[in-house]
Amino acid sequence: MKKLFMLGIAGLFALSFSTLSAQLIKTSLTLIVRDDTGNIVEKASVILYEKEDDYIKEINPVAEGLTDNKGVVRFKALKSISYFVLAKKADKDNSGGGELIGKLEDQKFNKATVVIQ
């Protein structure tokens, strides 16, 4: 009887821990911006859009950020959907390819690379 009770307590603890950890991890996206020769791009402007029309018109951004000294920008607490990405620095951008990031995995740390030219 005591073993059954302890097993029940352990099961409840495991269930509550898995639920808690699922709530703590938000869907996020880490983007690395590179130029056409593969070098990282610092201080590139990166903007996420949910809809292609918004991306084309450059309106209603979902999130914005600048890459750090390693060419990385992170976005947190995103929806688990596909996003249109606009990355720019000076006269270079990612138009003509690589604008759409595939559907993000829910409650995961998603990663992608964007090339500007």
Structure commentary:
By secondary structure, the chain is of the alpha+beta class. The protein has one domain: Immunoglobulin-like. 25% of the residues lie in helices and 34% in strands. The protein contains two helices and eight strands. The chain has helices spanning 2-24, 52-57; strands at residues 28-35, 45-49, 63-66, 72-75, 83-89, 92-93, 100-101, 109-116. Strands 2, 3, 5, 6 and 7 form a five-stranded antiparallel beta sheet that branches. Strands 4-1-8 form a three-stranded mixed beta sheet, with no helix packed on it. The longest helix is centred in the first third of the chain and has 23 residues, at 2-24. The N and C termini lie far apart (69 Å). Mean pLDDT is 87; it is low at 17-22.
Spatial separation of the terminal alpha carbons:
69 Å
> Helix content range of the residues, please?
10-25%
Mean pLDDT: 87
Q: What's the total count of β strands?
A: 8
Largest sheet: 5 strands, antiparallel
CATH architectural category: Sandwich
Count every helix, treating DSSP H or I runs of 4 or more residues as helices.
Answer: 2
**Low-confidence runs of at least 5 consecutive residues:** 17-22
CATH class categorisation: Mainly Beta
Which series of helices and strands comes N to C? HEEHEEEEEE
**Shape type:** globular
CATH superfamily: Carboxypeptidase-like, regulatory domain
Q: What integer value in Å does the Rg equal?
A: 20 Å
What count of domains describes the coordinates?
1
